[in-house]
Write a sequence for this structure.
């Protein structure tokens, strides 16, 4: 056995231990794009709320806002914007990660990507349903803090199966969610920071570190 | 200077066996098809080396069915994990001794 053999052995052990337990094809560029979508969405939501000054506070407030004849017509576009941002982000993430996996000649739908998806979607689905229930019951103020906190939890939980940077992003989102709960009425700003700015920062770091 | 080749585990002389073991140490369990995909080897090659590791009692085999498809899972035993760690220590020793 020669020294180069030993070095090859050790290199292959290191790479396999990582590749077998972590999904490393996650695209950093998709993080940047998700942040951009979120900022566009936040600006659109801000414009809608500007036309309805009476709603600006009640949607961000922490008290029961309730429904009247105008509520639904203001609420529906906001929900549609949120859904569009979420859908576009997920789609971009899947397409770009798939391409990265192919470039690296690694399976996209593997044991690790399945584990990543499961551990990410558990807190996300639970939080999403909770938020929907509160929206139906008229407590709109819960949306911003709860979505940031549950999204952060899902990232922390998913981070065991991918890059460690995802955990830091998750912890930042949770902290931001808790702070936003202290400042009712500013939910949209916290949303723009959490889903927009943080994603762009995280995506840029990941892109420079792993994508190129 | 005597190089401690004798401390290297004979069961890990083959690169593929060492690779299988590193996957099973890093994960609680791994199934046959995922292993095959990850290591990019043929069925027969993988199966024969898994058998070898099983004979050494380094790994445990769990056969089950997912619907109608057979699903074979492997996990590292305590003995296997110790052997793997010892083998890595021996490799480390080797590198150190060749450097000095």
């Amino acid at each position: 056995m020669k020294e180069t053999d030993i070095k090859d052995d050790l290199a292959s052990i290191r790479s396999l231990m990582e590749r077998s337990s972590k999904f490393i094809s996650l695209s950093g560029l998709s993080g940047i794009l998700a942040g951009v979508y979120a900022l566009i969405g936040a600006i659109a939501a801000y414009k809608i709320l500007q036309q309805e000054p009476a709603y600006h506070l009640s949607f961000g407030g922490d008290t029961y806002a309730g429904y009247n004849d105008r509520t639904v017509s203001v609420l529906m576009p906001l929900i549609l914007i949120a859904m569009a941002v979420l859908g576009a982000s997920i789609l971009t993430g899947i397409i770009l990660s798939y391409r990265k996996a192919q470039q690296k000649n690694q399976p996209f739908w593997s044991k690790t990507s399945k584990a990543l998806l499961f551990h990410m979607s558990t807190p996300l689905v639970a939080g999403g349903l909770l938020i929907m229930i509160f929206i139906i019951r008229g407590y709109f103020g819960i949306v911003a803090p709860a979505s940031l906190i549950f999204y952060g939890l899902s990232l922390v939980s998913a981070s065991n199966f991918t890059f460690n940077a995802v955990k830091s992003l998750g912890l930042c989102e949770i902290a931001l969610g808790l702070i936003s709960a202290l400042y009712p009425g500013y939910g949209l700003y916290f949303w723009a920071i959490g889903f927009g700015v943080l994603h762009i920062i995280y995506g840029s770091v990941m892109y420079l570190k792993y994508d190129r | 200077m005597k190089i401690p080749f004798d401390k290297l585990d004979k069961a890990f002389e083959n690169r593929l066996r060492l690779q299988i073991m590193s996957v099973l140490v890093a994960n609680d369990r791994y199934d046959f098809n995922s292993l095959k995909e990850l290591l990019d080897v043929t069925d027969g090659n993988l199966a024969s080396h898994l058998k070898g590791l099983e004979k050494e009692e380094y790994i445990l085999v769990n056969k089950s069915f997912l619907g109608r498809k057979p699903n074979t899972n492997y996990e590292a035993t305590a003995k296997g994990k110790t052997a793997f760690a010892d083998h890595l220590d021996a490799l480390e020793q080797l590198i150190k001794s060749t450097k000095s």
Observations:
- The beta strands of chain B are 30-31, 59-66, 69-76.
- The CA atoms of residues 48 and 57 of chain B lie 14 Å apart.
